[in-house]
Amino acid sequence: xxxxxxxxLLDQFKELTLLELxxxxxxxxxxxxxxxxxxxxxAVAGAPAxxxxxxxxxxxxxxxxxAGDKKIQVIKVVRxxxxxxxxKEAKDLxxxxxxxxxxxxxxxxxxxxxxxxxxxxxKITVK
Length: 127
Hints:
Elements: H1 6-14, H2 18-32, H3 37-54, E1 60-66, H4 71-81, H5 87-95, E2 99-105, H6 107-119, E3 123-126
Antiparallel strand pairs: 1-2, 1-3
């Protein structure tokens, strides 16, 4: 039997269903008298983290934590940042803090809004 490389083995494992892979792990543990519990848990926990690290966040929420001392200035900037808001809506939004001002926006738009609002005296969080 030809010896398989690590990459070839991984390709074979990719083709297995979860049930088949589980059965393989049990057979491997019995054959070599080892437990794969810790390495399997690390691999499963590490896989989503690696995928998230590779996929950089591209949507951000700008959250108004508080208006600070200059509420009127913050209301003006909120009206500028959030299009289509009237004075009453902007005032209600600022007074209802903490509230999301912008949701699912690009990083540069979130940073620009944060900069403007903080310059007006608001406390902002970008998530």
